[in-house]
Request: fold
Amino acid sequence: QVQLVESGGGLVQAGGSLRLSCAASDARYLLGWFRQAPGKEREFVAAISWSRSSTYYADSVKGRFTISRDNAKNTVYLQMNGLKPEDTAVYYCAAFLGGSFVLPKDYHYWGQGTQVTVSS
Reply:
């Protein structure tokens, strides 16, 4: 099993920034970030590969969010700039094992999530 622990969430005003971290017990996977707002389905945010430095972003966050990873520390980060109220959600880190990386069902391991709240 892969253990994932998110941190860095909090309350920020619109236009502000937050940096989320995900500490993984094993980072030899593509790692992704998802988010889920109250009453909404879980949606893909960003993902990053282990070796090719390939990154993927949802259209809603392109140009504002940046995903990165430090393999020596088994940690993935999500730098969130220019935050908007619609970014308010619980953010989850997950490990991808195969399939379509934008689908939650294809991630087998999940962290507990960290709350991000953006005030208007």
The chain has no helices and eleven strands. The chain has a mean pLDDT of 94. The longest strand covers residues 89-96. The radius of gyration is 13 Å.
